[in-house]
Amino acid sequence: MNKEEKQVRVYADGVYDMFHYGHARQLEQCKKLFPNTYLIVGVCSQEDVEKFKGKSVMDGYQRTESVKHCKWADEVVYPAPWIIDEKFLNDHQIDYVAHDDIPYQTADVDDAYALCKKLGKFKATKRTEGISTTDIIGKILKDRHKYLKRNIERGMSRQELGMGFWEYFQLKYDWLFCQRRKRKQD
């Protein structure tokens, strides 16, 4: 690195629930915006997530730890503000905020990043098509019984799975029946 290259402090924020390769690619884009980027990643508080987006799969600690282990993040801030203000930008000496360019309507504002755009401190990133936490949760819910059977086979109790007696019995009995049939065929 050339000593004359100024370090550019870039901030990216998000919920980062069920941290996946789309999140990692977003942070990679942010890290590569400038030759000498210091990437600060804000993880939104559990309270804000539940208030503005709904229940998350992972809690704040788990989401933060996932981001801390991403090679692109130099620093992680938790809890991060839902809406960025000038005080936050100044306190963290942020040069740019990076996020996808779609106006993010939330908390009675038309665009959560409007201030950063107005100040000329916004850099757009591109979303990774084909992956999102919502899609992952949808896939799990669609194949719910397959995942429940899988965990029953691994010895989880109905209480651990949050299942009623009859549903658990039906899935476990079906699994046992299939196991017996398989043994008879062998």
UniProtKB/TrEMBL annotation:
Domain named Cytidyltransferase-like: residues: 11-137
GO function terms (MF aspect): choline-phosphate cytidylyltransferase activity; phosphatidylcholine binding
Superkingdom to which the source organism belongs: Eukaryota
Full protein name: Cytidyltransferase-like domain-containing protein
UniProt keyword Nucleotidyltransferase present: yes
Phylogenetic placement of the source organism: Eukaryota, Sar, Alveolata, Ciliophora, Intramacronucleata
Lipoprotein is among the record's keywords: no
Protein keywords: Nucleotidyltransferase, Transferase
Entries under CDD domains matching the protein: CCT
Coiled-coil parts of chain: none
Organism whose genome encodes this protein: Paramecium octaurelia
